[in-house]
Amino acid sequence: MLAAVAPASPAFGPLARAAIFLRALSADGEEPFYGELCEALLPDLGPAAAVADLGCGAGNLAFEIARRAPATVAGIDLDAHLLRWAERAAEGVEFEAPVRIDAGRFAASPMRVRPGLLASRLAFAAANVLDPPFGPGSFDLVTLVNVLDAVPFPAVALRQAVALLRPDGQVLFASPDSWNGGTTPPKRWLATTEAGWDRVFAREGLETLRRIDDLEWRLRDTPRLHHLYRVHGRLLRKR
Ligand SMILES: C[S@@+](CC[C@H](N)C(=O)[O-])C[C@H]1O[C@@H](n2cnc3c(N)ncnc32)[C@H](O)[C@@H]1O
Fold this sequence. Notes:
Blueprint: H1 12-25, H2 33-41, E1 50-54, H3 60-68, E2 72-77, H4 80-90, E3 95-102, E4 105-111, E5 122-126, E6 139-145, H5 154-163, E7 165-175, H6 194-203, E8 206-222, E9 225-238
Parallel strand pairs: 1-2, 1-6, 2-5, 6-7
Antiparallel strand pairs: 3-4, 7-9, 8-9
The structure holds S-adenosylmethionine.
Residues 55-57, 60-61, 77-79, 82, 128-130, 145-147, 150-151 line the site of S-adenosylmethionine (SAM).
């Protein structure tokens, strides 16, 4: 049935996005980016810590954080289709996932998620990062990973993220700065250099605790088409 989804079908785009992120999530096609990012920047989080993953996609980062820390993680995204896959993955059992064979076809493949997931510590909801459904000061850590350059109003998304932090709360930020002009008009781009990001974060009352540059984030579109991004990241603290 998946093979019958033609490129012109409205289902093709959502399925293609899901296939990319599910491949990165699967035990076999694991993408090292999320682990490397956490290795470099994830702070120590205790059992009572609350994390919000804004623009979580299929939950790749949320899963990685939940594996590494006893915290609870709430992921929000506008893409309800991706979130449904994230919820299935969180159940921790094998399921059939779409796999891209080539530019025009999918197959269904059994997907094994790496063990160690605790669905009870993960929650996903369809919501807008520009108007998140959480009260101010609710989280110890808010993540904005590969998302600020993908929203129409990145300044609003960043301000909302900071508002969600408890005193001394932290932001885990990462971005390829790929700024798709169709999504984010150039006049709203926040920064394209490290010095520019320094100014943006300072304006929001955020100080940089740790930083990393040149992490590779690979999105496997088809077996023969991969997109490779260079991502910079920071752990920031609300002053
Ligand atoms: C490039 S993906 C990154 C996903 C995830 N953070 C990761 O690194 O795997 C950007 C995500 O932002 C989501 N997104 C874009 N605009 C959004 C908005 N206004 N509110 C919530 N999510 C949004 C998209 O649906 C997409 O899943």
